[in-house]
Amino acid sequence: MAANEVLTTIKKRRSVRSFKSDQITEAELQAVLEAGIYAPSAGNQQLWHFTVIQDKQVLEQLNKDAKAGAAQIDNEHVQLMAKNEKFNIFYGAPTVVLVSGKEDGLMIESDCAAATQNIILAAEAIGLGSCWVDFILSAFGGEQDEQYRQQLGLPAGYKPFSSVALGYKKSEAVNAPARKENVINYIK
Ligand SMILES: Cc1cc2nc3c(=O)[nH]c(=O)nc-3n(C[C@H](O)[C@H](O)[C@H](O)COP(=O)(O)O)c2cc1C
């Protein structure tokens, strides 16, 4: 099978859920953001927006509000996490990139997902830990929605689709679990 650095990075990346407290460098941050904006987008519309959040108070507020929002969701697993005081939705990561998209953009959810995937792969490629965190979405849509849109500088008509927690890994992740089989067929 073909092998190269990109393929190795794809297979090596795992969600990291334990971060060192030191902040990532500006060069590392710019590298992952650039990877995000080089993602493909439907019709090349590029209708995404990235909010870099490194303010600890804002991260803590988002953590609290997301858990409060998630506590209302009718799902036992989600409720257990939401009600666990020790659980931090960002796992203590010092940087979170919120990925938003223009609400009326064509296939905007896919565009934002492509950008998010690029960010987590770029993070792995330069030795950073990352976790795709959609738990953050529970902080939006409620009473504090408008306040967050302003505080986080979302352009008018945009809404959050995902986020990525970023930082230095506390420990190396184990290899990916076995992949499910029989998920490919061929029409030749
Ligand atoms: C759309 C999406 C949303 C996710 N949201 C969360 C999240 O809120 N919190 C979290 O810890 N992991 C989240 N993840 C990470 C998945 O749990 C993780 O990718 C999956 O368990 C496979 O593990 P791996 O990333 O180590 O391969 C999310 C992943 C995706 C694709």
From TrEMBL:
Any single GO molecular-function term of the entry would be: oxidoreductase activity, acting on other nitrogenous compounds as donors, with NAD or NADP as acceptor
Tell me what this protein is called.
Answer: Protein DrgA
The alphabetized UniProt keywords are: NAD
One GO biological process this protein is involved in is:
2,4,6-trinitrotoluene catabolic process
The residue ranges of the Nitroreductase domain are 10-168
Transcription keyword on record: no
InterPro entries, per this entry?
A: Nitroreductase, Nitroreductase-like, Nitroreductase/BluB
Keyword ATP-binding on this protein?
Answer: no
> Can you quote a single GO CC term?
cytosol
